[in-house]
Each structure stands twice: as C-alpha cells, then as structure tokens.
Amino acid sequence: ETKPQDWDGEINTTLRGTLNCCWAVLPQMMKQDYGRIVNITTAGVKTGSQYLSLYGASKAAVAQFTKSLAMEPRLPISLLHEVTTCLGKWLTCNMGLNVFPTTQTVRAIAARFWGSEVAADFSTYEGKALAAKKIQDRSYAKECLILCDWLWPVMEMEFSEDHVGDPTLESRIVSAVTGRDLDEDGLYQIGEMVFNLQRAIHIREGRKGRESDVIPEQAYTEPLEYEIQDPQLILPGKDGEVVSLKGRVVDREAFEKMKDEYYQLRRWDMATGLQTRAQLEEVGLEDVAQDLEARGLLAATEHGH
Fold it and tell me: Which ranges of the chain would DSSP assign to H, the alpha helix?
C-alpha cells in the first residue's frame, strides 16, 4: 500500500543509516588496525514477512552489505608459513625426532628460496629484506593459483640428494595448465604486481607507507622468553651454529635500516615507503599509478633510488 514517495524514508533509515555509520567509523578502525562492526538485520531476510516487503528488502540489503564489508578493507595474506613450516621441521630434526632438514639443508633452502644462505642466520638482520621480498612475491603468486599454503612451495624433499626442494614447480604447473610459457621469475613478477596492487589499496584505505610499516612497540622492549613448541627459542645462527634468541629484543635502528634496504629492493621511495609512478608502471600497474597520483598518494620525489 505504500507509494514511491514513502520508500525513501525506510531505505534512508535502514540502509543509508547503516552505510553512514560504517563510513564514519572505518577510517579510525583502519588507522588503529582494529575494530568491530555489528549490523543488525532480521530473520525476515531469509523467510519473508507479510506487509514488510520494503523493510525486509532494506534489511536484506544491510545483510548483503555487511557480508561484503567483512571482506574489506583488504587484509594481507599470511606470509609466515614458508618460514615457520621449514623451521618447525628443522626443530624436530634438531631434537632428534626427524632426520631432515638439517641446519645445512636449511641454509641451502635459504640460498635457493630466500636469496642467500645468510637469510637462514637468525642472529642477524642481514639478508632478511631480500628474503621478505622473495617470500612476499612468491606467496602472492601462489595465492593467485589457489595452492595450499601449507604444502607450497615444496622447499624440502626427503629422497633428493641434498633434500632441497624445487621452486620452479608452481610456474611449471601454470605452463602445463594454460599452455603459456612461464618460468620461475615470470611467476614472481606476477606476484610482485599483485603485491603492489594490494599495497596501493592499503594506501588508498588510509595507510601511510613507512609510517604504517611498524611492529608492536613491545617487540623493542619486552625480551623473548618462551614459545610452547620451542621453550629455548633455538634457531639456526651464524655458519649454521644453533643459537637461542631467549632474552632478545628487536633492535630499532637495525630494523629501520632493514626497512631502508627493503624499500630499495621494492623500488619504493625510501624516505616515505610510498610507491612511485615509475615503479608501478614497471610492474604493469599504469592505471593504478595514475589513480594514486591524482589522489596525491604517490611519493612526491623518488628518494633513495
């Protein structure tokens, strides 16, 4: 019995009111990297109710909006499994519960997958910036292929001579399925493009580049004490020596220097951590560069290049 002129009141209250509230709080939630939004709908969105068609329609819209909003802002994917899975197996080997991967195998894996043997020396910050970039690019390419994060990449092989896995397998799968000739580096270039796209989305959502690339403050002040699976906090150290990180804290100056190196490897502006137009165009994101430039979200000058 309602007339078109009556519809706006219900829609403005139920749907637009929800949109306005979410729009108001999301920037602060993104800034603090925390927050919860709870929108209330009605059981009628599933079953329908007589004389409540307009109300039900607006509530159904709220329900669908909430489901979609739960997928935003774009969250980074997990990037730790490649390291922790390998080190977890190394720990069982070190405890005598397994025969591989030994410390020497982990060093060989680091050289092949993370860019250098020193990446497997967890007593130093050296080699970690390059390792981070390689792991990120590979992980984002792997995510595009919908490959299980626990099984890929195949970093160790029990029956090979050196037990080191094969990082070319993913690109070979792509080539076999699509008929497109793609090598390992080509796959990582795709991962780099996707990673940069997500970085651009984060910048659009309000993150501030270097200013937002931080770890919890307690990492600098509260010494490591205990981990349930590794109470002594042992890891491979220099030249394969087993070291304990118990009592360690992150060195702030060393961490910032590592970020400098990382930004240089990414070809981002080192002072701000923001992307540059030239770098985005280089990875095939010309339209993204144009959009960010129009919004004033690219590095004003290309420091550190």
Answer: 4-11, 17-32, 44-47, 53-69, 81-94, 103-109, 128-144, 169-178, 184-204, 218-221, 252-266, 277-282, 286-294
